[in-house]
Specification:
Layout lengths: L7 E6 L5 E7 L5 E10 L17 E9 L6 H16 L8 E5 L3 H11 L1
Parallel strand pairs: 4-5
Antiparallel strand pairs: 1-2, 2-3, 3-4
């Protein structure tokens, strides 16, 4: 993947509140990943104790499937973070960061063994 690779994200609503599913495509319009996006919306200040820590809005990104290599992960996350933060921002929700989660390597190996 080149340093100038760009991704597009097709975002879809799900049946759960504040949860979305997306398909990610690379610059050649080829499948790159399927992700689930969960909006981390903090409670209003008046609903938490006075001494509660301050938390920022964020996005949890569950990478359910991906056609990227480990060498592409940083570039993938940088670009996807920018896209998702822009697409999810609203007057009431301004995420400050994304947290990415990937399938366990053990789970991936087990799935590959079952398919053989």
């Amino acid at each position: 993947m080149s340093n100038n690779a760009s991704y597009t994200v097709d975002l879809m609503r799900t049946l759960w509140q504040h949860t979305y599913r997306a398909t990610v495509f690379n610059a050649a319009d080829e499948y790159a990943a399927t992700i689930r996006l969960i909006l981390g919306i903090p409670l209003p200040a008046e609903e938490v104790p006075e001494n509660a820590p301050r938390v920022d809005a964020h996005l949890t990104v569950l990478v359910e499937d991906a056609a990227i290599t480990p060498a592409d992960i940083i570039e993938f996350e940088e670009q996807i973070t920018r896209i998702l933060m822009e697409k999810s921002a609203s007057p009431d929700f301004q995420p400050t960061h994304c947290i990415f989660f990937y399938p366990s390597p053990a789970e991936t190996l087990l799935r590959s063994a079952e398919e053989e």
